[in-house]
Amino acid sequence: MNIYIPVLGMTNHGGVRVLVQLANQASKMGHNVIFLAPKGKVHYVFELNSNILVNEVGLDLKSKILSWLCFIFVCPFYIKNGIVIANHFVTYFIAFFSWKKDKFIYLVQGLEFKCYSGILGFIAKIMCYISYKSKFVFAANKYLFEELRGYGNPIGFLNLGISNLFINKYLNKNKKYDFIYFLRNEKYKRKDRFDRLLSDFDAIGISFVCVSQDECLLDEYKNKGLTCYQPQNDNELIEVIDQCKLMLLTSEHEGFALPPLECMARGVVPIMYECGGPSNYAINNYNSIIVSPDDDKLIISSLNLLINDEILLHKMSNNALKTSKNYDFDSELENFINTYLIQ
């Protein structure tokens, strides 16, 4: 069976990482998997099975919107006789208009219209509302399933999880930093929250490391004197995570949020603002600390508490490890492929 996965960019975004896990599992099961991405938008460090194809289509344009428009019009011509998996409202319309497809699944990993503002946000909301009415909508987790029921009738949901590598790799307990921060530029990731906390971190001597695949962001924060790192693969990312006691998440909205769960699998306790999706696995004061939006004082006091209370940190770290073992993704993906894709 041919499985086509159109994406707006082959990057290390959590949503793409989930699709990569799905693609690798489908490939292991003997299916032909083809990623389709706009030309010039393939930048990733994760491992793909050697027989998975990544095809760049369309024109290499600097404008994101023009690149997307070109991709929408060109991509359907590359899809022939197979299943299409979409994970974004833009790729939903690619799947919808691919007249030679056999079937398609819209795997919603977040309410994308919340990521945009202004006229672009208005257009995104209309496109999302239309796509969520589809009879092929499948939610990435139970939280999103319940949200999507307000817009349409999703057919089911995944118990989204993480790569076995994060769960099974040897755990290095030598800590160098107090916390790790995943540096991202999207508006809903709320980097501004992190920025306004920097003076507090400095005042009380909290150490941290930033990780990102965005070279411009890395250069910007290196110039501020911060410790920044660009992992080249999952093994390198795990090595950095293992050097930290805690993880800080500043997002205002997440459909799932993969990094906190990946950190929990390494015994690293997430501290986060309320943002939705992580409630699938994050339990306040058990395996994580979750604070109200913009309660910066509680973020700082929570970091301080766990950094200085080794007994509490050890307890929550063990709870995080236990939780992560319930999110082994391989068997869930195999069931999804057999039940919803290949039927």
From TrEMBL:
Pfam families linked: Glycos_transf_1
Protein name as annotated: Glycosyltransferase family 4 protein
The organism's taxonomic lineage, starting at the top: Bacteria, Pseudomonadati, Pseudomonadota, Gammaproteobacteria, Enterobacterales
GO-annotated molecular function: glycosyltransferase activity
CDD domains the UniProt entry points to: GT4_PimA-like
Glycosyl transferase family domain segment(s): 215-322
SUPFAM superfamilies: UDP-Glycosyltransferase/glycogen phosphorylase
Species of origin: Limnobaculum xujianqingii
Keywords per UniProt: Transferase
